[in-house]
């Protein structure tokens, strides 16, 4: 932990919700998600940009004795680096921070598990009731096996939050793989480390995709003038070709192509990741 006094931060602080099997927010001590608190709602939401933001909130909160009022004042007094929000109407909560010394988990600094049982979430914009009652669509739309695939393959807050909230990416991976297997993907198969590694390599495309359009996008959504829409790749209009068989995946990876040859390269990369996964899974 860097910055101001952080000795109050316990290394084993852990959200009680994590004890519930299937928790997506805080699944285990190696990662967590903070997407609905505005974690990625920045034009530039790359890992190197988010880490200092989280460190700043965390060190400030603990250095001020976990006092939310003092925190808000001090937070407002410090000028953050210029980085516009993706969507103005989504609140980027200043109380999102790192929950452990090793900075493996992001989460709510006002949560009772961080504050000796005191629930301080009424000090935030949303309030305690809204914060505690919110469950994102991934809870209901991802199947048990789909949730497990993300939980078991990723041990890193940044990538975990991006993927667990990207329902299309996860579902389309399953669709591609299960179509080739002619069977459903079994959670049992994810016990094999090579299978998990191959799956992580696929999900890691979210962070390393060479055709990513960059800013102004989050998954298949693009943001403009405080509105968002679902992006499209204009295969027919621009190049008179059929949509890619990986269209859904290409959209979630925020792809922008200059030539049809780019699309072939992109398809080849995705195909390689899927084949690697199947080789490990069936091997
Ligand atoms: S986006 Fe979903 S998984 Fe992530 S913290 Fe919010 S409710 Fe939990
Ligand atoms: S106070 Fe609410 S919005 Fe803010 S970090 Fe905590 S749970 Fe998220």
Short description:
By secondary structure, this protein is mainly alpha-helical. It contains twelve helices and five strands. A hairpin with a 7-residue loop joins strand 1 and strand 2 (106-108).
Give the key terms.
283 residues, mainly alpha, 2 domains, two-stranded antiparallel sheet, 5 strands, globular, binds iron/sulfur cluster
Number of helices: 12
- Encode the helix/strand succession as letters: HHEEHHHHHHHEEEHHH
Helical residue percent?
Answer: 40-55%
Bound molecules: iron/sulfur cluster
Number of beta-strand segments: 5
Alpha-carbon distance between the two ends:
42 Å
Rg on CA atoms, Å: 20 Å
| Number of structurally distinct domains | 2
Structural class: mainly alpha
Unreliable residue runs: 1-21
Shape category: globular
Query: Whole-number average pLDDT?
Result: 91
**Strand line-up across the major sheet:** 3-4-5
The major beta sheet can be summarized as:
3 strands, antiparallel
Strand percentage lies at 5-15%
Structure notes:
The chain is mostly helical and 283 residues long. It folds into two domains: 16-136, no CATH class; 140-282, no CATH class. Helices cover 42% and strands 6% of the residues. It has twelve helices and five strands. Strands 3-4-5 form a three-stranded antiparallel beta sheet, with no helix packed on it. Strands 1-2 form a two-stranded antiparallel ribbon. The longest helix is centred in the last third of the chain and has 23 residues, at 260-282. The structure holds iron/sulfur cluster (2 copies). One iron/sulfur cluster binds next to loops.
């Amino acid at each position: 932990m860097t910055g101001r006094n952080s000795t109050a931060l316990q290394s084993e602080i852990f959200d009680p919700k994590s004890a519930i099997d299937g928790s997506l927010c805080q699944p285990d001590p190696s990662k967590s998600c903070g997407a609905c608190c505005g974690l990625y709602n920045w034009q530039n939401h790359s890992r190197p940009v988010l880490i200092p933001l989280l460190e700043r909130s965390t060190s400030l909160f603990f250095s001020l004795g976990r006092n939310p009022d003092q925190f808000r004042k001090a937070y407002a007094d410090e000028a953050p680096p210029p980085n516009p929000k993706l969507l103005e109407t989504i609140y980027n909560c200043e109380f999102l921070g790192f929950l452990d010394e090793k900075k493996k988990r992001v989460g709510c600094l006002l949560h009772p598990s961080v504050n000796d049982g005191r629930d301080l979430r009424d000090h935030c914009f949303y309030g305690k009731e809204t914060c505690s009652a919110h469950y994102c669509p991934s809870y209901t739309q991802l199947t048990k096996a789909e949730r497990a695939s993300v939980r078991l393959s990723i041990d890193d807050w940044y990538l975990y939050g991006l993927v667990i909230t990207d329902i299309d990416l996860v579902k389309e991976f399953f669709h591609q793989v299960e179509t080739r297997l002619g069977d459903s993907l079994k959670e049992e198969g994810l016990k094999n480390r090579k299978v998990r590694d191959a799956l992580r390599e696929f999900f890691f495309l979210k962070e390393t995709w060479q055709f990513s359009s960059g800013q102004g996008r989050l998954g298949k959504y693009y943001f403009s003038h405080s509105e968002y829409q679902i992006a499209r790749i204009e295969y027919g209009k621009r190049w008179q070709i059929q949509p890619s068989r990986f269209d859904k995946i290409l959209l979630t990876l925020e792809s922008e192509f200059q030539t049809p040859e780019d699309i072939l390269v992109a398809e080849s990369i995705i195909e390689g990741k899927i084949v690697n996964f199947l080789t490990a899974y069936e091997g």
